[in-house]
Amino acid sequence: MASHKITTSWKENMLFESDNPSGHTVLMDTSEENGGTNKGLGPKAMMLSGLAGCSGLDLVSLLNKMRVSFDDYKMEVEGELTEEHPKTYHTVTLDYHFYGTDLDEKKITKAVNLSIEKYCGVMEMFRQFAKVNTNIHFHNK
């Protein structure tokens, strides 16, 4: 059974450094209004980045296999937090933006749906605690 282990170390004030099984590190901090110095990603926002990264990796792999070309691709993720503590995401919206000439919208849509419904484990984890909305936007030149 696969597992991941990370180590998160306090650096100073509200700043933490967390490693990754690949050996890379990321800084986590909070805003000045919450006692931090804003030197790193916020933990909740990093969860949204993890969602985008998971689906993004799926899509690049799938679109390469499908031989679909595009000039650029980005994802915007917005999470709405509950009002009460512990504040958790109750709704998350993931917008996929594809840019290019003569984009193959049918294949891109198929790849996005495969990521959403089958391959992205982070997407499935988010579904356990939040409503996840997804939208695809095509920007043809």
Characterization of the model:
It comes from Tenacibaculum holothuriorum. InterPro entries: KH_dom-like_a/b, OsmC/Ohr_fam, OsmC/Ohrsf. By secondary structure, the chain is of the alpha+beta class. The chain has 3 helices and 6 strands. The protein has helices spanning 43-65, 105-119, 121-127; strands at residues 8-12, 15-19, 25-28, 72-81, 89-100, 131-140. The strands form 2 sheets. It has a 3-stranded antiparallel beta sheet with strand order 1-2-3, with no helix packed on it. Strands 4-5-6 form a 3-stranded mixed beta sheet, with helices on one face. β4 (72-81) and β5 form a beta hairpin. α1 packs across α2 (105-119) and α1 packs across α3 (121-127). It is globular, with a radius of gyration of 17 Å. It starts with 7 loop residues before the first strand and ends with a strand. The model has no long low-confidence stretch (mean pLDDT 97).
Give the topology.
Layout: E1 8-12, E2 15-19, E3 25-28, H1 43-65, E4 72-81, E5 89-100, H2 105-119, H3 121-127, E6 131-140
Helix pairs in contact: 1-2, 1-3
What count of helical segments does DSSP give?
Answer: 3
Please tell me the CATH architecture of the largest domain by its name: 2-Layer Sandwich
Which strands sit side by side, in order, in the main sheet? 1-2-3
Strand content: 25-35%
H-E order:
EEEHEEHHE
**What is the structural class?**
alpha+beta
In round numbers, the mean pLDDT is 97
What fraction, in percent, of the residue positions are helical? 25-40%
| CATH first level of the largest domain | Alpha Beta
Pfam families: OsmC (PF02566)
InterPro entries: KH_dom-like_a/b, OsmC/Ohr_fam, OsmC/Ohrsf
Protein name: Osmotically inducible protein OsmC
